[in-house]
Amino acid sequence: MSEPTVKKSPSAQTVKNKEVKVPHTYTIIFFIVLICWLLTFIVPVGKFETTKVKYNYKGQEKTKTVVIADSFQYEVDKQGNAVRKPARLWGTEDFGGYGMLNYMFEGLVSGDKWGSAVGVVAFILVIGGAFGIILKTGAVDSGILSMIKRTKTNAAAIIPILFVLFSLGGAVFGMSEETIPFAMIVIPLVIALGYDAVVGVCITYVASQIGFATSWMNPFSIAVAQGISGVPVMSGAGFRIVMWIICTSAGLIYTMMYAKKIKKDPTKSLSYETDKYFRDEFKSKEDINSEFKLGHKLVLLTVGIGIVWIIWGVTKKGYYIPEIASQFFVMGLVAGIIGVIFKLNNMTVTDMAKAFQNGASDLVGAALVVGMAKGILVVIGGTSPTDSTILNTILHGMGSALRGLPGVLCAWVMYVFQSVFNFFVVSGSGQAAITMPIMAPLSDLVGVSRQVACLAFQLGDGFTNLIVPTSACLMGVLGVAKINWAKWAKWQIKMQGFLFALGTVFIIIGVIIRF
Predict the structure, then answer these.
(1) pLDDT score recorded for residue 46
(2) Are 337 and 407 members of one domain?
(3) Per the UniProt record, which residue ranges are transmembrane (predicted)?
(4) 478 with 124: CB under 8 angstroms?
């Protein structure tokens, strides 16, 4: 007699294979804004005094405005009680103060052309438009298809080569925003080779930030931190070069292991569904644009020359967001002219304009996220150390809590604090200016060298750039990859744990060897 069949409920049948829905990035940021708004009702506000310090970098004297240690003061009322400044529910700067429900607009228009949000938003839209023209010519697709045919047996070699190059870029000249346009080329390439967009993000942005975190000469991070702390700039390079080699190798191995798994079974990718956009593009163009014409080669040559121009500008002339955006615009314009002359995809001048519009529109979502993330900081009152904000109170509280801790534990807590603080101040030089004037003298009191304090800063600042939603660069790259931040965070949290453990090892070694 056979056993009776037990019919499972629909939920029991499907729950096993049903993937938990991840909230949209916009939703997550909204709730972060809500939490920060509520904190303004609880945490009293305070501020620091600032001063200017001088330091030498590559033979040049530079200055930086920094906070004065032990200058923190709570804002108090007439009775001497600490003041809380609850953010308004609604309002603008000209209408009673910033309001929580204005976080998107105020975030988008904050800052200037040299940084987030407005500068990075403009940067994302301009390079999106420029690459829209370049992609319209079909040169990138034809070049990738030609490369695939030539490197089918050595496709995996592309990953380590590019990973090391991007990591070196992060270490040498603080490569960050520059990875956004590169991701536009690398992501379609690796997907065409049988990997996924996550691998493309790892090769470009992740690699650059590992280099950024372990650099021995990054002008935007370790150089500023050392100068502020009174440590000789570029000192400790030997230790940091070894750290860069080990961390870059570890990040590469982690990426290669994941890439191998995806190559074997693409459906295991967290971006499998969104990667369909790129896969369909190649399927539709595989036969049409398989011929790699002279015009295509000239367009790619233009891109190559443009990249060299950008690297030269960043390393030799100090070019930043405005200049780099203009360089990419020129690159797109020249590529479009070549496309019209050589009739690539029957391209016309009108097609150039439409391609620029379409390219920019593809990244509007990423640009909006940058503004939303900046809105978080607007709600809590900003990041200025001289303004009365809850962020300054948190910084002061953390500094006070470190006093009296054992050396190794204090250094590790500094590392943890810098990692958390990076959520609020993603700028490497900005975070150094706010935290190092407090952490450097504090390290003297607890028996930790200032070099280790700088080490804790650079590792905490750099590694968490890979996951914090307030990073304009990360959001820009994820926008290019069409990956939801929540999905990325779910995958990245494991790598964060891995990198955090690796950073902890170097912090402990630094304390033990009196680095």
Answers:
(1) 93
(2) no
(3) 26-46, 114-135, 155-176, 182-207, 241-259, 294-312, 324-342, 363-384, 404-426, 466-485, 497-513
(4) no
- Distance (Å, whole) CA 453 – CA 116: 27
CB 170 within 8 A of CB 209: yes
SS3 content of the chain, % helix, strand, coil (to 5): 65, 5, 30
pLDDT (tens digit per residue) in 355-378: 999 989 988 887 888 888 888 888
- Grade residue 428 by pLDDT with cuts at 50, 70 and 90: confident
Contacts of residue 91, defined as CB under 8 A and 6 or more positions apart, other chains included, come to 97, 98, 99, 102
> Alpha carbon of 10 to those of 5, 14, 17: distances in Å?
15, 6, 12
Do 211 and 248 form a contact (C-beta atoms < 8 A)?
Answer: yes
Q: Are residues 347 and 391 in the same domain?
A: no
DSSP assignment of 54-69, as one string?
A: EEEETTEEEEEEEEPT
Euclidean distance between CA atoms 387 and 407, whole angstroms: 32
Q: pLDDT tens digits, residue range 274-315?
A: 898 888 876 655 544 457 889 999 999 999 899 889 889 877
The predicted model scores a pTM of 0.79
Question: Got the DSSP string for 255-311?
Answer: HHHHHHHHHH-GGG-TTTTTTHHHHHHHHHHTTTT-S--HHHHHHHHHHHHHHHHHH
Q: What are phi and psi of 88, to 5 degrees?
A: -70, 155
CA distance 380 to 391: 7
Decide: 164 and 252 in contact? Cβ < 8 Å: yes
The answer to whether residue 56 sits within a structural domain is: no
pLDDT at 153: 57
C-alpha to C-alpha distance for 309 and 332, rounded to whole angstroms: 14
Q: Is 51 helix (H, G, I), strand (E, B) or coil?
A: strand
Name the residue with tokens 């295991």. Answer: 268
105/70: higher pLDDT: 105
Distance CA 455, CA 510 (A): 8
Pairwise CA distance, residues 117 & 113, whole Å = 8
pLDDT at 58: 67
- The pLDDT of residue 426 is above 70: yes
Domain for residue 506, yes or no?
yes
pLDDT of 410-422, one tens digit each? 999 999 999 998 8
CB-based contacts of 260: which residues, under 8 Å, 6+ apart? none
464 and 482, same domain (yes or no): yes
Domain-embedded: residue 135: yes
Task: Give how many domains the chain has, as a whole number.
Answer: 2
In angstroms and rounded to an integer, the radius of gyration of the C-alpha atoms of the chain is 24
- DSSP symbol at 229: H
DSSP E strand boundaries for 119-223: none
Look at residue 350 and tell me if it is in a domain.
yes
- Residue 228 and residue 187 in one domain: yes
Looking at 329, 359, 389, the residue that finishes a domain is 359
> What contacts 376, CB < 8 A, 6 or more positions away?
29, 32, 33, 36, 103, 107, 424, 470
pLDDT digit string (tens) for 181-208?
889 888 988 998 889 999 999 999 999 9
Q: Is there a single domain that holds both residue 314 and residue 415?
A: no
Which residue range is the domain that position 460 belongs to? 65-75+88-109+373-512
